[in-house]
Each structure stands twice: as structure tokens, then as C-alpha cells.
């Protein structure tokens, strides 16, 4: 780092560690089972006649379609560059740098903390209970000390739904002091009811959604923030002037038609079947123990010889995610549910590894 950059760089930025995304950790390979992406790739059409113009900040074709899909009002809907941008907007809109804090409940999605730290906002942590439910008493002890509370349900990486009664307790406790964000990136894989239906009941509730998982559109970076019209208007004050590229808006609108949604639901059903089959076969091996639940498109397992297995799978072109550095997830590996062919290659490679270790 040059002396000029050292002199100009903010002190808190110097201490930051970037989010270790799946693509940063590993590249290459033939089977990408490390980023909770869908194995499906659906076709969409692009109208290039509008590409010479700046796009709409909040394209009505996307806003109206997603509001209908989520059963909320268009004025309660904001579209952004993935749900990750929604996280940043909430931190920027409701937290004063160098003064305020957010609350997270590890083990959970890493971008909540990184987004806060990027804006010089503090991070309070209350660990999940042993069963990965919320420690609501410890969370409520922080009333008045945080401005935004992040709850991931279904939780990444544990695959667990947070009990509704616990989220209700947190919403009520922080009713006058903090925004409570329920991240539902994996809601389509869960049997739990979405919190989007509770926006009118809880003015401090925000729901995050994405097209990256069930909709198989991680590559277009399109997410949604659902909240009261008042909160949405506040976020529109801090969002970029053209957050959604025109090609992204076109694809998102096509993905949200009734026909496309029916197709997506069929793909979700296939993935659920594949998940059950994969989990059954892995748990037949004595080297694995399931951790958490499977209310998402991934499974979390505690694995014998974790490091050796990871290295072997990488050498075979199969990428999964090591979660062992997360709180209380020692020796845990997260595996995205892939296609039948990908899952079969994974199982065969795992069997080869453990057989070679026993030889």
C-alpha cells in the first residue's frame, strides 16, 4: 500500500476484512455447491432498444410484479442490487456512523456485520442458542443500544427457521427503538409463513428477499426490501440513482410472470426431492452428522476429517463451503443442493476419500 493511500484511508476501513464470498475463496471447478445457487438456468429475452437510456430507479414492471408475488403493496416494495444492497441501505438510513450499532445473531450471514463495519457502525452480537433459536432475553437486554436488528430466517448457514413467537417478542421489544430485519432469502424452501404479511401489524418490521436462490437468478443481482411505505421512502433517499440495470429489470419482470413463477415452484419441488435424497445418503455415512435443519437449498453437516475432505473435493473440481470458523460450527461443511448429476458426483467423491483414508 502506498504512503498516500495509507495517509488517506479511513482508520476503520484499514481494519476491515472483506466478505469471503464463494467466488473469492475458490474459482474453477465443475460443480459449484458452495454458494447456495440454483443448478437451473432458465432462458430470458432481452430488448436492446432501451440500453442507450438510463434505467428507472424503481421500474414499475418489477415493483408491481414482486409486490403481487409477495402479497404486499407496491409502495411497500423496493428493488435493489441484490438483498445485500438492501442491508447496506438500512444501515445507512438508520445508523449514524461512529455512534450507532446493529445487532446480529451468529452463526449467521456475514454481510450484516461487514455492511455495518463498512459504514463505521458498531456490531453487537448475541449468539444463537444451542438449537439455533434466538436468545431473546439477551437480545432484549440491548433495547435502546442498537438501531437495526438482523434476523435470518431460514438462517444461513444453519438452515433453521426462527420460531414466530421469538421474532414477535423481538419486534415488540424493539418497537420504539430499532428496525427489525427478517432476511427471507431462502423463504421459498421453507414451510414457514413469510413475515411480509405482518408489515401493517409491525411498523418496525423489514423483510429482505432475493431472486438469487429459488428464482435461479444469482447472476443478475436483484433483491427486494419489503417494509412500510415510510421506511421505503427513507431508503429511497440513500439508494443510488440508477440501482437496477435495464437488462436486470427486464429479466426480473419476466421471472415474475405467473407462468415463470409456476415453473420456479416446479424447480423448487425438484430441489426439495434432491435435498432429501442427498441428506439421506450422506447421513448413511458414519463420518457425518447433520447440524441445524434443512429449510433452505443447502444442508449443514459436521464432518470427520473436514480439512482433508475439503481439499480432496477441491482437487476433484467439487466446491462446497467450510463453515468451521463460524461460532459453534466447528468442523461443519455447508453443501448446496445441486442437480442429480452433481449430487451423485459429490457422493462418489466423498466415498472415495473416506475409503482411501481407511485403506
* Class by SSE composition: alpha/beta
Major sheet description = 7 strands, mixed
Work out the strand percent: 5-15%
User: How many DSSP H or I helices?
Assistant: 13
Q: Secondary-structure element sequence?
A: HHHEHEHEHEHEHEEEHHHEEHEEEH
Mean pLDDT: 94
Q: Largest sheet, order of strands side by side?
A: 2-8-7-6-5-3-4
Descriptive account of the structure:
The protein is globular, with a radius of gyration of 21 Å. The protein is an alpha/beta fold and 359 residues long. Strand 5, helix 8 and strand 6 form a beta-alpha-beta unit. The termini are far apart. It is built from 13 helices and 13 strands. The strands form 3 sheets. The chain has a 7-stranded mixed beta sheet, with helices on both faces. Strands 9-10-13-12 form a 4-stranded antiparallel beta sheet. It has helices at residues 3-8, 11-14, 22-25, 60-70, 82-94, 111-118, 136-140, 164-173, 229-236, 246-255, 258-283, 306-315, 340-358; strands at 31-32, 77-80, 101-104, 122-125, 148-152, 179-183, 205-210, 223-226, 288-290, 298-303, 318-319, 321-322, 332-336.
Topology of helices and strands:
Elements: H1 3-8, H2 11-14, H3 22-25, E1 31-32, H4 60-70, E2 77-80, H5 82-94, E3 101-104, H6 111-118, E4 122-125, H7 136-140, E5 148-152, H8 164-173, E6 179-183, E7 205-210, E8 223-226, H9 229-236, H10 246-255, H11 258-283, E9 288-290, E10 298-303, H12 306-315, E11 318-319, E12 321-322, E13 332-336, H13 340-358
Parallel strand pairs: 1-11, 3-4, 3-5, 5-6, 6-7
Antiparallel strand pairs: 2-8, 7-8, 9-10, 10-13, 12-13
Helix pairs in contact: 4-10, 5-6, 11-13
Amino acid at each position: 500500500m502506498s504512503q498516500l493511500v495509507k495517509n488517506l484511508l479511513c482508520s476503520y476501513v484499514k481494519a476491515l476484512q472483506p466478505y469471503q464470498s464463494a467466488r473469492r475463496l475458490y474459482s474453477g471447478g465443475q460443480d459449484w455447491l458452495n454458494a447456495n445457487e440454483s443448478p437451473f438456468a432458465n432462458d430470458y429475452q432481452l430488448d436492446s432498444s432501451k440500453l442507450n437510456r438510463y434505467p428507472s430507479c424503481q421500474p414499475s414492471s418489477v415493483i408491481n410484479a414482486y409486490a403481487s408475488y409477495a402479497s404486499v403493496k407496491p409502495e411497500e416494495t423496493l428493488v435493489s442490487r441484490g438483498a445485500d444492497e438492501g442491508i447496506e441501505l438500512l444501515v445507512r438510513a438508520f445508523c449514524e456512523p461512529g455512534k450507532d450499532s446493529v445487532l446480529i445473531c451468529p452463526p449467521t450471514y456475514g454481510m450484516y456485520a461487514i455492511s455495518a463495519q463498512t459504514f463505521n457502525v458498531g456490531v453487537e452480537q448475541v449468539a444463537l442458542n444451542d438449537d439455533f433459536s434466538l436468545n431473546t432475553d439477551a437480545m432484549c437486554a440491548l433495547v435502546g443500544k442498537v438501531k437495526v436488528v438482523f434476523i435470518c430466517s431460514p438462517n444461513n448457514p444453519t438452515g433453521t427457521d426462527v420460531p414466530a413467537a421469538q421474532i414477535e417478542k423481538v419486534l415488540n421489544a424493539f418497537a420504539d427503538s430499532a428496525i427489525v430485519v427478517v432476511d427471507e432469502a431462502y423463504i421459498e424452501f421453507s414451510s414457514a409463513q413469510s413475515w411480509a404479511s405482518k408489515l401493517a401489524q409491525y411498523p418496525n418490521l423489514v423483510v429482505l428477499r432475493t431472486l438469487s436462490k429459488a428464482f435461479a437468478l444469482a447472476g443478475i443481482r436483484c433483491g427486494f426490501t419489503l417494509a412500510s411505505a415510510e421506511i421505503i421512502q427513507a431508503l429511497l433517499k440513500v439508494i443510488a440513482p440508477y440501482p437496477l440495470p435495464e437488462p436486470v429489470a427486464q429479466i426480473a419482470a419476466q421471472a415474475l410472470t405467473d407462468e415463470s413463477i409456476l415453473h420456479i415452484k416446479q424447480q423448487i419441488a425438484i430441489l426439495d426431492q434432491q435435498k432429501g435424497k442427498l441428506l439421506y445418503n450422506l447421513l448413511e455415512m458414519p463420518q457425518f452428522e447433520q447440524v441445524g435443519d434443512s429449510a433452505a437449498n443447502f444442508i449443514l453437516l459436521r464432518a470427520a476429517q473436514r480439512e482433508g475432505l475439503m481439499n480432496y473435493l477441491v482437487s476433484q473440481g467439487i466446491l462446497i463451503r467450510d463453515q468451521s470458523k463460524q461460532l459453534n460450527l466447528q468442523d461443519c461443511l455447508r453443501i448446496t443442493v445441486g442437480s442429480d448429476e452433481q449430487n451423485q458426483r459429490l457422493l462418489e467423491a466423498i466415498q472415495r476419500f473416506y475409503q482411501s483414508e481407511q485403506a
